[in-house]
């Protein structure tokens, strides 16, 4: 029976996922995590068959969790379940090692179908994510964030959400100088004239929005 690791910083939300998934034959939730660090630790301890995770976590994001888990286990099956629906964010998740991406606006059945597909070794996406990526490809296949690395995307997201450089450094276990250097590179790559312009670019690209990095 496939075992699952649920990663979301809201316990009530995880409980809802657990009930939905365990009503289906063949799914059992082995562990739950609320942070990227906890997800990595529990993955190594429990070796679940599938990880279902949100990208918006306190401290390091789900992108960081995906990257670390895949570095530990190159065959890990990871399904993103997030409010983020931009093509740029979805591509960053896939580049980090995700096997599927479903938006939280999707019907419950879409999550179950994607989970089953990822476990079969397929790449799964909800309709809105697939449409966003297709539209992006038709329009030229590049977005504002395509020149940024996954680490730069993460730093940009946390900064646009209001985190100071010191807070970003602490959360990502980086030196303050490293974060400041990355922010300088990000501004140069994006052509951001001010910090407000940088936030505007991040919001326009769908990287942040609403209560940043804390949505359900």
From TrEMBL:
It holds the Pfam family Response_reg. Residues 3-119 form the Response regulatory domain. Keywords: DNA-binding, Phosphoprotein. SMART domains: HTH_LUXR, REC. Transmembrane segments: none annotated. It comes from the Bacteria. CDD domains: REC_NarL-like. The modification 4-aspartylphosphate is found at residue 54. Residues 141-206 form the HTH luxR-type domain. PANTHER family: TWO-COMPONENT RESPONSE REGULATOR (PTHR43214:SF43). This is Response regulator transcription factor.
């Amino acid at each position: 029976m496939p075992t699952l690791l649920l990663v979301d910083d809201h316990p009530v939300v995880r409980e809802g996922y657990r009930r939905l998934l365990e009503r289906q034959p063949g799914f059992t939730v082995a562990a739950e995590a609320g942070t990227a660090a906890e997800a990595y630790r529990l993955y190594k301890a429990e070796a679940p068959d599938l990880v279902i995770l949100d990208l918006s976590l306190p401290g390091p994001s789900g992108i960081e969790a995906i990257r670390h888990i895949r570095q530990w286990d190159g065959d890990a099956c990871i399904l993103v379940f997030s409010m983020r629906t931009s093509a740029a964010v979805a591509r960053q998740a896939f580049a980090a090692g995700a096997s599927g991406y479903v938006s939280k606006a999707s019907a419950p059945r879409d999550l179950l179908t994607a989970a089953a597909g990822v476990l079969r070794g397929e790449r799964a996406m909800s309709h809105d994510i697939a449409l966003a990526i297709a539209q992006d490809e038709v329009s030229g296949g590049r977005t504002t964030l395509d020149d940024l690395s996954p680490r730069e995307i993460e730093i940009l997201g946390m900064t646009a959400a209001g985190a100071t450089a010191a807070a970003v450094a602490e959360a990502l276990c980086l030196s303050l100088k490293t974060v400041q250097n990355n922010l300088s590179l990000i501004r140069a790559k994006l052509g951001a004239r001010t910090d407000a312009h940088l936030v505007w670019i991040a919001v326009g690209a769908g990287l942040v929005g609403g209560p940043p990095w804390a949505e359900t």
